[in-house]
Structure formats: structure tokens, C-alpha cells
Amino acid sequence: MAEDAEGVISFYDEVGGRETFARLVDGFYRGVAEDEVLRPMYPEEDLGPASDRLLMFLEQYWGGPTTYSQQRGHPRLRMRHAGFHVNPDARDRWLLHMRRAVDELDLSPLHEATLWDYLQRAAHAMVNTFEPTGIGPTAGGRTTTSLPLNPSTDPPR
Ligand code: HEM
User: Fold this and answer.
1) Angle of CA points 113, 26, 96, to nearest 5°
2) For residue 88, what is the enclosing H or E element?
3) This prediction's pTM
4) CA distance 20 to 49
5) What pLDDT score was predicted for residue 138?
6) Which of 66, 110, 132, 148 has the greatest number of CB atoms lying within 10 Å of its CB?
7) 80 alpha carbon to ligand 1 midpoint, in Å?
8) Pocket of ligand 1 (CB under 6 A)
9) Interval 33-49: pLDDT, tens
10) What residues contact 30, with CB distance under 8 A and at least 6 apart?
11) Domain-by-domain residue ranges, the chain?
12) Does domain 12-126 have CATH number 3.10.20.30?
């Protein structure tokens, strides 16, 4: 259990550290794997690498290891999602799978409310189009299917 300079234990440690976040992300991706709208959005055949990125991000956000930024740089999540068709339907599906995964964690009511509040706000902030799934370009008339995930290291697509 790691305390910061003021002796404060992070939310990350309070809820059980890596094991808890790994369970959250595993549960979430089990739902995504079966989702006919979300699954095709993931560029890779294997959901494992996407799952690792989400795990690292959430760990960092809640006060755990900062591996995400070491490997991926600044999160810039809105920008990284700009190439994906995130409409309200996709958001609601994302939240449905997260909700189920959060429920499986059996957190205390305060921890659960804190986590869920954040996930809802983040998911609402990620919406970038109101076009129905499969119709029209995503916001801004983008022509690519996704932006380079890490512009500083990835080759241009
Ligand atoms: C609202 C619906 C959302 C949809 C449909 C969605 C979909 C996606 C897709 C298709 C990817 C690419 C997979 C990959 O290669 O990593 C991705 C990446 C990612 N998403 Fe989301 N996402 C949503 C919301 C969120 C939210 C709310 C968060 C944070 C709380 C989040 C965090 C991430 C992270 C950290 C990555 C990896 C970024 C990187 O490349 O480093 N997403 N998302």
C-alpha cells in the first residue's frame, strides 16, 4: 500500500490496486467482445493490447503506476477517440459493459459511486458524433478510420 508525501492512500490502493482494475477491464472487454457495435470499432484482431492500454490508463488516473504515460505519452483521450464513431449508442454500450464490470467488483458504496461517476462523465465527454452507427463520416468529416494512436512514435497511416 503506497502513501503519498502527505500520507494519503490513493483510490487505486484503497480499492485493491492492480488486481481490482484488471478485473474491471477484463469484465468490460468480455462485454465488448460480444457487442456488435463496439467490437468492430477495435482495430486489432486481439482485444488484449487495447485492454492493456485501458488498464494502464485507469491505473494511472486513480493514483497507481504511471506506465500509461511512459508508454503512450499524454492521454489526450478525446483526440485519440476522434477517429472512432462514438455516438450516444456507442457510449451507452460502453457504459453498459462498464456497469456490469463495476458490479462484479463488489466495491464499497462510496468507492463504487466515485468510480461510476467518473466513468459516466468520461464516456459522455468522449461522444464525438450524433450520426447513427454506420452512416456518414464521424465528426469533422474525417477520412481515416483512426488517428495515429501515438503520433510521436507511430508511422503515419
Ligand atoms: C464512450 C464510448 C467509448 C468508445 C466507443 C471507445 C472506443 C475505443 C476504441 C475503439 C479504442 C481503440 C482501441 C485501442 O487500440 O486501444 C479506444 C482506446 C482507448 N480508450 Fe476508449 N472508448 C470509449 C470511451 C472511453 C472512456 C470513457 C475512456 C476513459 C475513461 C476510454 C479510454 C481509452 C483508452 C485509455 C484507450 C487507449 C488510448 C491509447 O491509444 O493509448 N475510452 N477506445
Assistant:
1) 50
2) helix 88-105
3) 0.87
4) 18
5) 47
6) 148
7) 8
8) 38, 41-43, 50, 53-54, 57, 72, 77, 80-81, 84, 86, 90-91, 94, 122-123, 126, 149
9) 999 999 999 988 899 99
10) 97, 101
11) 12-126
12) no
